[in-house]
Amino acid sequence: MWITLFVIILIWLLWMVGSRIWTNRLLKQSATVLSSEDFEVQSHGHDIVDIREPAKFKAKHIFGARNIQYMLLKENHAALRKDKPVFLYDENGQFVARIAKVLHKDGYNQVNVLKGGFNTYKGKVKSNQ
Questions:
Q1: Can you spell out the DSSP letters for the chain?
Q2: Are residues 53 and 83 in the same domain?
Q3: CATH assignment at residue 56
Q4: What CA–CA distance (Å, rounded) separates 113 from 96?
């Protein structure tokens, strides 16, 4: 029984590490990853997109951001201009890598992503709490 538990934990750890490596690789190929400070400075006056669920967005989001859910943006990103920088973030940086890849394949060359997601952001936020 202990061996089975050990194998399950080992597989889970390998999955988590592999997932993180894959996410980082996708981001490096598809977008510029910015620290919280750089994201706040560089995104000023540009299109900031929060891909989290609407409830989380309404509770608290980066000042000036608009909410386009992950699935909606993945299916139709016509609301974004290809000729201007796009700044994306999610909760913790997992889903944003996939969106960055989709946008990059579709010709968006100025995709910027918040490193670590909203959980790591230290700039101006709008809160409804």
A1: -HHHHHHHHHHHHHHHHHHHHHHHHHHHHH-EEE-HHHHHHHHTTSEEEE-S-HHHHHHEEETT-EE--HHHHHH--TTS-TTS-EEEE-SSSSHHHHHHHHHHHTT---EEEETT-GGG--S-EEE--
A2: yes
A3: 3.40.250.10
A4: 7
Looking at the structure, tell me whether residues 12 and 51 fall in a common domain: no
pTM above 0.85, yes or no: no
How many domains does the chain contain in total?
2
Q: Which residue range is the domain that position 3 belongs to? A: 1-30
Share of the chain above pLDDT 90, in %: 63
Contact yes or no for 97/113 (Cβ under 8 A): yes
Interval 60-114: pLDDT, tens: 999 999 999 988 888 888 889 999 999 999 998 878 988 998 999 999 999 999 9
Q: Clarify whether residues 15 and 48 are in a common domain.
A: no
